[in-house]
Amino acid sequence: EVQLVESGGGLVKPGRSLRLSCTASGFTFGDYAMIWFRQAPGKGLEWVGFIRSKAYGGTTEYAASVKGRFTISRDDSKSIAYLQLNSLKTEDTAVYYCTRDEGAGVLDYWGQGTLVTVSS
Amino acid sequence: QPVLTQPPSTSASLGASVTLTCTLSSGYSNYKVDWYQQRPGKGPRFVMRVGTGGIVGSKGDGIPDRFSVLGSGLKRYLTIKNIQEEDESDFHCGAHHGIGSDFVWVFGGGTKLTVL
Questions:
Q1: Do B44 and A43 touch (CB under 8 A)?
Q2: Which of B21, B27, B33, B26 is nearest to B96 (CA)?
Q3: Residues 6+ apart with CB under 8 A from B72
């Protein structure tokens, strides 16, 4: 059974950092691009960024709203994707989800999310 | 990049049918759209992909036959027949756009389905 479990969320002050983890099981993690989304309270889904599989260079792309502040990485040996959040702003408050790209952009499995609250 | 527009809410009675609509912005009539279901407090769940020819590929795991899609022009539809209590959810439509480093996923604002 495919499972994605996010962790690492919490309450953090503006300007501080946080690292989120997405622990995968039930599939060959290294074969898939992993994508991060977020959902602010009462809002829709916003794409944050993604990391390609090593077969496609393991490179990353980011939304303009987080580029330069957020970094995605992966450890295929542990089946974990990371989202490093730096220079956090109050508008980064959201539930953060990880998902995998099954192919051609189909996001077939998602985690349950982890809440990040940025507040002084 | 495309903009996806969804009505914020709709309702339907138990056992009835409902059609949810996702509208692409002008110039993107050839785009495929993915539908996702999000139950309260849960992560999204892939439902299926739709283009102008209807479903593209397979439904998501566990999606019942009561769910179907159609596409026409700039509109992408998700129809749910014989609505059940467990269908009460937010439904999101999304699409990916671009290639290489110019790549984004975009989503509509979501439609909240209330089962009466």
A1: no
A2: B33
A3: B52
Q: How would DSSP label each residue in B76-112?
A: EEEEE-S--GGG-EEEEEEEEEEETTEEEEEE---EE
A22 closest CA partner among A51, A60, A59, A55 = A51
Measured between its terminal Cα atoms, the distance across chain B in Å is 36
DSSP string, B9-61: EEEE-TT--EEEEEEEPTT-TT--EEEEEE-TTS--EEEEEEETTEEES-PPT
Rounded to whole angstroms, the Cα distance separating B109 from A9 reads 24
Shortest CA gap B82–chain A (Å): 24
DSSP collapsed to 3 states, chain A: CCEEEEECCEEECCCCCEEEEEEEECCCHHHCEEEEEEECCCCCEEEEEEECCHHHCCCEEECCCCCCCEEEEEECCCCEEEEEECCCCHHHCEEEEEEEEEECCEEEEECCCEEEEECC
Predicted confidence band at A105 (pLDDT cuts at 50, 70, 90)?
confident
Q: Which residue of B has its CA nearest to A65?
A: B104
Residues composing chain B: 116
Instruction: Quick: pLDDT tens for A9-61.
Output: 999 999 999 999 999 999 999 999 999 999 999 899 999 999 999 999 999 99
CB pairs under 8 A between A and B: 55
